[in-house]
Design a protein that fits this description.
Blueprint (H helix, E strand, L loop, with lengths): L6 H19 L2 H4 L2 H40 L10 H14 L9 H14 L4 H12 L14 E4 L5 E3 H10 L4 E2 L8 E2 L4 E3 L1 H11 L1
Antiparallel strand pairs: 1-2, 1-5, 3-4
Helix pairs in contact: 1-3, 1-5, 3-4, 3-5, 3-6, 5-6
């Protein structure tokens, strides 16, 4: 059973907001000076990222709720009053680990609009590029949802994870564990892991 309401209404509100923000980006140069434009874009990127994250939180909640409802209706004896909250939390975390804020509807279009304006205005300099990079690159481990410290990537799919968490996940199924990124069906083994030098460099620059 699908829990469409009020999820669809909330998701529609978030995607409409991103759509409006995308259209607004092109108008920034008409209302702000060059110095002001950079600050406005940085704030918009931060807000856009937060909106995309909220969308993924809602999606994970909906998926966990539907799963739990289906199990309850099917008479799952493993569910009790004492553990149902814990079961929901575990499913929520699992669904959330399989999402990426950059994949939320309309978010990529919004970031592309910001990139187009920044490329047309060289006065913004490297500062805005760093903010844009942060807006499209997730520095959080998809498994633990914590900031990455020692990033590695899958040789086949190129997705990035925290070394300790992906190794722990693979050890549970050493013959092949599905990549935890939503929509990715590549199987990972310990041999597939490589240091993500680009992400390491980015994280190092962020710490400065």
């Amino acid at each position: 059973m699908e829990l469409n309401y009020p999820f669809n209404a909330c998701k529609s509100l978030l995607t409409d907001t991103l759509e409006t923000m995308s259209d607004t980006v092109a108008l920034i140069s008409d209302f702000y000076t060059e110095d002001e434009q950079k600050a406005v874009l940085e704030k918009m990127l931060q807000n856009g990222k937060e909106i995309a994250n909220i969308g993924n939180f809602l999606t994970a909640n909906k998926s966990a709720g539907e799963n739990l409802l289906e199990r309850t209706q099917n008479g799952d004896d493993s569910l009790t009053k004492s553990n149902i909250s814990e079961v929901f939390d575990a499913m929520y975390e699992e669904y959330l680990s399989n999402t990426n804020f950059t994949e939320f509807s309309k978010y990529s279009k919004f970031v592309e609009a910001v990139q187009s304006l920044s490329e047309a205005n060289v006065a913004f300099g490297a500062g805005i590029e760093a903010v844009i990079t942060e807006a499209i690159v997730s520095t959080f481990d998809p498994i633990t949802k914590q900031p990455m410290v020692d990033p590695v990537k899958g040789a086949k799919c190129g997705h990035t994870y925290e070394r300790s968490s992906i190794i722990e996940l693979i050890k549970r199924k050493p013959k092949g564990t599905r990549c935890p990124y939503v929509g990715c069906h590549e199987k990972l083994t310990l041999r597939d892991l490589q240091d993500d030098e680009q992400m390491k460099l980015y994280l190092s620059q962020q710490r400065k």
